[in-house]
Amino acid sequence: MLQHILDNGIETTDRTGTGTISVFGYQNRYDLSKGFPLVTTKKLHTRSIFHELLWFLSGDTSNRSLQRDGVKIWNEWEGAHGSLGPVYGAAWRYWGSHERDNLVQIPVRDDLFADFEEPKVVWHQKIDCDLNTNQIWAIEKIENCDSKNSRYKVQTRTGFVGEISRPNWKSLKSVYSFDGYVVSVADVGFLGAPSCDPCDDRLYSLWRNMILRCYDKDHPQYHLYGGAGVTVSKIWHSYERFRDTIASVPFFHLWVDGNYRVEIDKDYYGSNVYGPSTCIFLKSRDNKSMSDGTALRIKGGLYESWSHFEDATGNRSDYMRKRLASGKRYKEFSPEDVEIIQPEPGHLWRREIFFDQIKWLIQEIKDRPDSRRLIVSGWNPIDLPQMALPPCHTLWQVKILGGKLHLHLYQRSADTFL
What are phi and psi of 43, to 5 degrees? Predict the structure, then answer.
């Protein structure tokens, strides 16, 4: 293939201004029964290859998740708080659905971080400094500073490590105002380690308000949250951990965009816990009519709630419910026309606000192995402007022939020598 490009390629311009020798539509075929087709002409970072693929399949779009696995290949495109926008995983697992009157059953999600514990504190060697106390002490003097405005790396009695200038240290009235490990929000929340990100008041407010309404009894919404048993996962008691994991929550890019009325929600997955594994960012219109997970069947139609029925049919649900509850008819509806439909155990009835292509593909392979429609697409034109990088492998199709799984990948662009 490389020789074919050198021999037959046409010199063209490109987006990067580098210049390209290009051919169009070249195809390679591999017999996977003979082995896995990894390139052998150069050393490959296989950790990046496999972790990235698992990251795609999980639906995660946060670069911080890749970094935790030692993968840095997306660092160049990282956006706010690690977000990469609705890239591969979002398209594969959370393709936005416009059929919001359809109902689907989704599994209830559990808090996977209920037993989360902060890493053990590493105690550093103290160095001589006239500002040292038993509350805070220097562990390193940062170079390239004059003596008047020297900066120090310091550690506090809680184990917190941060940087502070000599003037600010001298004027520090209380170490607790500097210490990120001190619980400072509703006797639960703490800031954690300093962030290299620019300060984001909007993200901090999202976190702080979530903590307050779950743990501060004086908060005006406490009775709807903490008073009703709603809690926050241990990992999100730390603003540092919240900041580092929030981009993994589906549809975070809509919240970052700021042009949508988007709310962080844990009811969609039937949880009483706010956490990375239980939340989703929903547009207000999708959040307002959510039910307890049961569905209403009214004259053959399936609805998430009475509010959903009203949106879909234009009927006044409040008046209709009163009429039917008293045994009277409402227009063409009678009390016998309304039936409550329970979901399967461990599931909830919800509006179809997104389409999971991977879940669909697996089920289709089982149910219709001869289908010629077993296709997954990553190219969503509406979401392209919000993606850190448009998908290169835009579409793939699988086919079952002779009891074997075949895969055909279409890749719009590839730096073949790289």
Answer: -75, 135
- Give the number of other CB atoms < 10 A from CB of residue 91: 24
Residue 342 tokens read as: 């329970």
> What is residue 319's predicted lDDT score, i.e. its pLDDT?
85
Tokens of 252: 């975070």
| 170-174: long-range contacts, CB 8 A cutoff, minimum separation 24 | 170/131, 172/136
Would you say the C-alpha torsion 102, 107, 110, 113 has a positive or negative sign?
Answer: negative
Q: What is the pLDDT of residue 8?
A: 96
Q: Burial level of 44, CB count in 10 A (0-12/13-18/19+)?
A: exposed
**In the chain, which stretches have pLDDT less than 50?**
none
- What pLDDT shows up at residue 373? 97
CA 195 to chain centre: 19
Q: What angle do CA 208, 214, 220 make, to 5 degrees?
A: 85
Report the distance separating Cα 131 and Cα 147, nearest Å: 13
At 62-101, the pLDDT tens digits run 999 999 999 999 999 999 889 999 999 999 999 987 666 7
DSSP 362: H
294 phi and psi angles, rounded to 5 deg: -85, 170
Placement of tokens 């993606």 in the chain: 387
State how far the alpha carbon of 66 is from the alpha carbons of 12, 44, 45, 83, in Å.
33, 17, 13, 11
List 411's β-bridge partners, or say none: 393
**Which stretches of 77-118 are assigned E, i.e. beta strand?**
95-96, 103-107
The length of the chain is 418
Would you tell me how many other CB atoms lie within 10 Å of the CB of residue 132? 16
- Name the CA radius of gyration of the chain, rounded: 27
Of 254, 232, 229, residue with least CA distance to 242: 232
What pLDDT, on a 0 to 100 scale, did the predictor assign at position 194?
77
For 266-292, write each residue's pLDDT tens digit: 999 999 999 999 999 998 877 766 778
Contact predicate 412/402, CB 8 Å: no
Q: Tell me, what amino acid is at 95?
A: W
For residue 186, the model assigns a pLDDT of 95
- The distance of Cα 40 from the centroid of its chain, to the nearest Å, equals 34
